[in-house]
């Protein structure tokens, strides 16, 4: 059945899963031909990464199946679930193969660790004398002690690196905390400054209104003064205190001859 007729998303995910499963099949066939332990380890890492990606895609496939389940016929949903189970079964078979190869590789590496380095001619225990057996055992013990000592050094170095990393992370965390606090202070200062600017703007606007009104009053007074000076007999303009012309003296009746 063509999955594109059910969902384009399902068809795309199915194609990606099929491609990864083919890659896993070819990868394990290639792994069987590899003899070097380091190359086997790298190949297993690549295959493990592909299996993780395949597992993620199968989960996406399952979610998409559940999303379109209500729109499909029962036989279509059954087919999709069977396909999902088939994918899971095939992936699990590769997971089992990976575990087998990993166990075999680990045993081989453990055997190489305890094997005497640089010994080309190994004497059989049956042909060794007691002294040779003791010497050989002592050499193996010394080599084992050296390997353990190297492992201890690696562990100590790892602990040291971990301690330094933890200290660096702690310092970075404290620095980030200080930066956040400084940003909060800056934000508060910006808000306060913005509020102050608004208040100043309102005050300036008020002052401008007052200055404008005073200017208009002064101009009105000046205009009245000018008119009064030019035409002092103009009755439409009331006298301004201090600027009115002197009143004529009234003559008393008894002063008239």
TrEMBL record:
Any one GO CC term of the record: ER to Golgi transport vesicle membrane
Sequence intervals crossing the membrane: 210-230
Keywords: Coiled coil, Membrane, Protein transport, Transmembrane, Transmembrane helix, Transport
GO BP: protein transport; vesicle fusion
Keyword Lyase recorded: no
Pfam family, one: Sec20
SMART domains per record: t_SNARE
Major localization listed first in the record, in broad terms: membrane
GO molecular function, one term: SNAP receptor activity
The name this protein goes by in its record: Novel plant SNARE 11-like
Organismal lineage: Eukaryota, Viridiplantae, Streptophyta, Embryophyta, Tracheophyta
């Amino acid at each position: 059945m063509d999955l594109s007729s059910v969902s384009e998303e399902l068809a795309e995910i199915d194609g990606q899963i099929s491609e990864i499963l083919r890659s896993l099949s070819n990868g394990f066939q290639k792994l069987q031909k590899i003899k070097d332990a380091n190359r086997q380890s790298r190949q297993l890492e690549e295959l493990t990464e592909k299996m993780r990606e395949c597992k993620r895609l199968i989960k996406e496939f399952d979610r998409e199946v559940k999303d379109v389940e209500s729109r499909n016929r029962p036989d279509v949903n059954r087919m999709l679930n069977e396909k999902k189970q088939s994918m899971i079964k095939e992936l699990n078979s590769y997971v089992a193969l990976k575990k087998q190869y990993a166990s075999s590789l680990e045993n081989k590496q453990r055997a190489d660790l305890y094997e005497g380095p640089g010994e080309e001619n190994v004497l059989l225990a049956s042909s060794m004398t007691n002294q040779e057996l003791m010497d050989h055992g002592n050499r193996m013990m010394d080599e084992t002690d050296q390997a353990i000592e190297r492992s201890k050094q690696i562990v100590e170095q790892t602990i040291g690196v971990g301690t330094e990393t933890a200290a660096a992370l702690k310092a970075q965390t404290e620095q980030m905390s200080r930066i956040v606090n400084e940003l909060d202070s800056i934000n508060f200062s910006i808000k306060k400054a913005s509020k102050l600017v608004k208040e100043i703007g309102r005050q300036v606007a008020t002052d401008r209104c007052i200055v404008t009104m005073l200017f208009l009053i002064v101009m009105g007074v000046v205009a009245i003064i000018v008119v009064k000076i030019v035409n002092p007999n103009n009755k439409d303009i009331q006298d301004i205190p201090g600027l009115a012309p002197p009143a004529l003296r009234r003559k008393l009746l008894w002063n008239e001859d």
